[in-house]
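Figure 6 in text form: structure in, sequence out.
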């Protein structure tokens, strides 16, 4: 009877610890991106493969687009600074092109950035 109790308590402790680990692993990585003629800031968006990501994209001037074709993300970013949001799970490690997808003037073609995903660091614990 006592052994059963100890085992139950141990199981509860393990389950609680696991729940904490899952919650920590799933905290959303939010990055604010400003689109402005003719660049994105930051020009490199750093994420860790597998983590939930929320990109909050705002325009600093006119209408722009924010596209990551490899992830099938394509947002129109309105003038006036209202945010648009893209939420996704960070892709496998690699470099993913980001481009403006709304013609915004003569520098439009150079309006590029990158989503850089790195492999998660494993700790020995
Ligand atoms: Cu553009």
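Output sequence:
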């Amino acid at each position: 009877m006592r052994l059963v109790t100890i085992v139950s308590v141990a199981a509860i402790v393990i389950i609680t610890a696991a729940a904490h680990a899952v919650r920590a692993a799933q905290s959303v990585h939010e990055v604010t991106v400003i689109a402005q003629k003719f660049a994105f800031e930051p020009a490199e968006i750093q994420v860790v493969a597998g983590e939930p990501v929320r990109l909050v994209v705002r325009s600093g001037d006119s209408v722009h687009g924010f596209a990551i074709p490899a992830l099938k993300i394509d947002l129109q970013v309105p003038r006036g600074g209202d945010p648009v949001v893209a939420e996704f799970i960070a892709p496998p490690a690699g470099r993913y092109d980001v481009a403006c997808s709304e013609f915004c003037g003569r520098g439009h073609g150079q309006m590029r950035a990158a989503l850089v995903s790195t492999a998660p660091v494993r700790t020995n614990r």
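Caption detail: The pocket of copper (II) ion is lined by residues 64, 100, 102-104, 108, 111 (CB under 6 Å).
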